[in-house]
Design brief:
Number of strands of chain A: 3
Oligomer: heterotrimer
CATH superfamily of the largest domain in chain B: Winged helix-like DNA-binding domain superfamily/Winged helix DNA-binding domain
Number of helices of chain A: 9
Radius of gyration of chain A: 28 Å
Pfam families (chains B, C): SMC_ScpB
Helix content of chain B: 55-70%
Subcellular location (chains B, C): Cytoplasm
Protein name (chains B, C): Segregation and condensation protein B
Strand content of chain B: 5-15%
Order of helices and strands of chain A: HHHHHHHHEHEE
Helix content of chain A: 40-55%
Radius of gyration of chain B: 23 Å
Largest sheet of chain A: 3 strands, antiparallel
Number of strands of chain B: 6
Strand order of the largest sheet of chain A: 1-3-2
Largest interface: A-C, 68 and 69 residues
Keywords (chains B, C): Cell cycle, Cell division, Chromosome partition, Cytoplasm
Shape of chain A: flat
Number of helices of chain B: 9
Shape of chain B: elongated
Structural class of chain B: alpha+beta
Organism (chains B, C): Fictibacillus barbaricus
CATH architecture of the largest domain in chain B: Orthogonal Bundle
Number of domains of chain A: 2
CATH class of the largest domain in chain B: Mainly Alpha
Largest sheet of chain B: 3 strands, antiparallel
């Protein structure tokens, strides 16, 4: 199950941190490191549970957060040795560098949103390809090709495929057989019952098609939500067992 | 729908459909009106383009309507072709050339399958410019002509051999990945809706 | 040359140039008149297309004039299957593009420093789409590639020039944004909590 697709929805550790800061409504300039670190690690953990590829950048950030956290926990009594005024001026907050990066990143994330808006406004207008002007070329010029580079050709290829994709949906969506989630939920319950109410998580994904995997996964989430099943896992990375709950 | 809007959309449709043209049935479908209702609008539009201060006119070939430039302005388009900065290959020709370069040997109908449109004219242009040529015949019935690029093609793009063509961008495959992600989220949202009921 | 003819040819030139657009200098060259003489004609043409019974309007992107359809008619053009929709960029590509747009020329590692993640793939996508390009090499060891935005970038976002980019926000008060991903994770975590009980 490799859903390293955009499933996680985050563009990297900074994006995830911004999300946490927003969710917990904390001040970006005064981040409660302990809480944020804990939440951050929980996300990483969840991603691993989902067998998502956790990019190394996320782990580097986790280490950074832990380092900041420990620096902030340094025994206070040492500080008493210094003049209080001095300390305020001299000592650097271990969070400073991280805050600087977050604020910087946030600016561009915001700019990206603005571009997105412009892009969608732009998508409401249509144009046409330049007309074929070859009939207007003089005979002796016909053999010549100027102002065309490899790059133009690559662009053209790109365009061909874009157009092909744009044309495609009308032809393919009809033939896809959709499995309703409710149906899959029933199937999962029945298959659990048939083996005494307990099954390995991975055994539910035997049919390899992508849609089947997606629907099965969502059906499991839904079954957990309505408390029809329970999931347990003894250790990190060990097999997850699905158990039927009393109805 | 207002009369003015119908007129405007017909003009816009003629414009976006470019050199391919658009037939009356399609226009009627887009506007969700009866084909017969179109006539007065098209006549009016045709007439307005006949004025001497207009640059295009509307022609109808084999049931397909399209904008074309006026013959009396030909001299200006000839000049345009010669202005520096004007690319000498049309977009259609470039696309066709790209497909041939990456997928040769290839038949015309295979090219048309990828592009989704007729490709006779661009192929003629490319042959005339010596960039592509016939390299053989396909097996099977019809024995269609197979096209490939020429030595002049390599020279023009400064390539030693076809192996030096830049690799095709990965995101051509990416598009299908995005569709899968979409499938995931649409399923997921579907499940949320179910839950709300 | 007659006034009507000038007007007609400008219209025709805009038409044949399609989404490539045409700049004032080229138009003047083709007409063999002075660039300054063009303005009243272009203004007049622009104005005539503003009427509600017209399907296109004239816009100026990246210094090039071009015809585009009117946004209020988008729904009709969408019904034409053959018309490719604008492909939209992924979040990763948009972020990368935003950083390049504001900080160009910039190296890949500088972009990665801001984003905090590898940026090879989005950069490839953007290059392949012609939205960014190599604009030079950085000084010093390695002589890393410097990236900048292209004319196609301006066109893609309907900008006249880079100056039209909105100023970067210095202090952002973010309202709480509900994300799909968040829904997803809260679901999942909820389920984990259930399991812990």
């Amino acid at each position: 199950m490799q859903y390293s697709v955009k499933l996680d929805g985050f563009e990297g550790p900074l994006d995830l941190l911004l999300h946490l800061i927003q969710t917990y409504e904390v001040d970006i300039y005064d981040i409660p490191v302990a809480i944020i670190t804990e939440q951050y690690l929980q996300y990483i953990h969840t991603m691993k549970e989902l067998k998502l590829d956790v990019a190394s950048e996320y782990l580097v950030m986790a280490a950074t957060l832990l380092a900041i956290k420990s620096k902030m926990l340094l025994p206070k009594h040492e500080e008493e040795l210094f003049d209080h005024q001095m300390e305020l001026e001299m000592e650097e907050d271990p969070r400073d560098e991280l805050v600087r990066r977050l604020v910087e990143y946030r600016k561009y994330k915001h700019a990206a949103d603005e571009l997105k808006e412009r892009e969608s406004a732009r998508s409401l207008i249509y144009t046409r390809q330049p007309a074929d002007l070859s009939p207007f070329e003089k005979e002796e010029k016909e053999k010549q090709v100027t102002n065309v580079t490899l790059y133009d050709m690559l662009q053209a290829m790109q365009r061909v495929f874009q157009e092909k994709v744009a044309r495609a949906p009308k032809q393919t969506t009809i033939e896809r057989q959709e499995i309703p989630i409710e149906t899959r939920m029933e199937q999962i319950k029945n298959s659990l019952l048939s083996v005494g109410g307990r099954k390995k998580f991975t055994e539910l994904f035997e049919k390899g098609t992508k849609e089947h995997v997606v629907v099965t996964f969502l059906a499991i989430l839904e079954l957990m939500k309505v408390k029809s099943i329970n999931c347990e896992q003894k250790d990190h990375f060990s097999e997850i067992y699905i158990t039927m709950l009393e109805e | 729908m207002e009369r003015n809007e119908i007129k405007a959309v017909i003009e816009g449709l003629l414009f976006v459909s470019g050199d391919e043209g658009i037939d009356r049935k399609q226009i009627a479908q887009v506007l969700e009106i009866d084909v017969k209702e179109l006539d007065p609008f098209i006549d009016e539009l045709k007439k307005s383009y006949e004025a001497s201060d207009r640059g295009m006119s509307i022609v109808e070939y084999a049931g397909s309507l399209q904008f074309v430039t006026k013959p009396e302005h030909a001299v200006f388009y000839e000049r345009l072709v010669e202005t520096p900065g004007h690319s000498t290959l049309s977009q259609a020709a470039l696309e066709t050339l790209a497909i041939i370069a990456y997928k040769q040997p290839i038949t015309r109908s295979e090219i048309e399958e990828v592009r989704g449109v007729k490709t006779e004219k661009p192929l003629q242009t490319l042959s005339a410019k010596g960039l592509v040529k016939e390299v053989g015949r396909a097996e099977g019935t019809g024995r269609a002509i197979l096209y490939g690029t020429t030595k002049a093609f390599l020279e023009h793009f400064g390539l030693q051999s076809l192996k030096e063509l830049p690799p095709l961008p990965e995101n051509i495959q990416e598009e299908s990945v995005e569709q899968e992600a979409d499938l995931f989220f649409s399923k997921f949202q579907e499940s949320l809706t179910v839950e709300d009921q």
